[in-house]
Amino acid sequence: MSIKTVYELLERCREKHGNFPPTDLYNEGWMLRLVLEWLSRHPGIGGPLAFAPSDRWYCEALLPTAFRPDFRGDPLSEARTHADGVIGDFQIGADRKGDLTALDGASRLLIVEAKMNSKLSSGVKNAPFFNQAARNVACLAEVMAARNARLTAGHELGFFVLAPRTQIEAGVFRNQLDREHLRQTVQRRVSQYEDRDGDGFTKRKEWFETAFEPTLAMANIQEIAWEDVLDMVAGTGSEAEQDLKAFYDDCKRFN
């Protein structure tokens, strides 16, 4: 009964007399869920986002950070990062509810940030310059480092921004996804600890050199247009083509 009512409410939200804003449903989060579910059912299809048969996906996972508090009330620390979507070899909740950890021997981890009509966030409270792209790539490095993973050619790591083609063509995300910009941004984050007593700076400098830089060098970092994903779905003759396109059109309209 409750599930049926939820369905009816969601179906009605796009109408003039709906009971809550249509953006509760028609947004980048739900568009991403639909796309990842379709890709998971069609392994090997999807270009950079193609699923391997053993992959799983999850939305709103909490990614670990190398900038955890060194002590209670640490003014340089930051909270875990919420990942819009993750694909690969991982588990959720092994440590705490919502936390993502890589499986032993994990070789694939792809993080996806979904946008509909917004930019990447500029920073966090204790580091206003530490933008969303840099945080995600840093977290990607920390996930693998937490498993003491020695990166090899067999690893497949990535950070992708899914967004409307108009945003990508306008260069909205280009600067923040530049590798040198990412390297300098994370290095600046590490340098905040230079004057701290103890090993706070030393351990993060080592992390930057042994975990972050190899991850940055290896990771596939790029923008992907929602329209390109929809074209790919259309190319398979899938019955989901029209449904996904209609949902995407409503996402753009209500956002």
> What is the makeup of the main sheet?
5 strands, mixed
Tell me the series of helices and strands, N- to C-terminal. Answer: HHEEEEEEEHEHHHHEHH
Q: What topology, given as strand order, has the largest sheet?
A: 1-4-7-8-9
Overall morphology: globular
SS elements, strand count: 9
Low-confidence stretches: none
Q: How confident is the prediction overall: mean pLDDT?
A: 94
Helix content: 40-55%
Radius of gyration: 19 Å
Strand content: 15-25%
Structural class by secondary-structure content: alpha/beta
Distance between the termini: 31 Å
Structure annotation, total helices: 9
Please provide a written account of the structure:
It is a single chain. The chain is of the alpha/beta class. The protein has helices at 2-12, 28-40, 132-146, 165-169, 174-177, 179-191, 200-218, 226-235, 240-254, and strands at 56-58, 61-63, 81-83, 85-88, 90-92, 100-102, 108-114, 156-163, 220-225. Helix 2 (28-40) packs antiparallel against helix 9 and helix 6 runs antiparallel to helix 7 (200-218). It is globular.
Question: What labels describe this entry?
Answer:
9 helices; 5-stranded mixed sheet; alpha/beta; 16% strand; 255 residues; two-stranded antiparallel ribbon; globular
Secondary-structure blueprint of this entry?
Layout lengths: L1 H11 L15 H13 L15 E3 L2 E3 L17 E3 L1 E4 L1 E3 L7 E3 L5 E7 L17 H15 L9 E8 L1 H5 L4 H4 L1 H13 L8 H19 L1 E6 H10 L4 H15 L1
Parallel strand pairs: 7-8, 8-9
Antiparallel strand pairs: 1-4, 2-3, 4-7, 5-6
Describe the structure in brief.
With 255 residues, the protein is of the alpha/beta class. The protein has helices spanning 2-12, 28-40, 132-146, 165-169, 174-177, 179-191, 200-218, 226-235, 240-254; strands spanning 56-58, 61-63, 81-83, 85-88, 90-92, 100-102, 108-114, 156-163, 220-225.
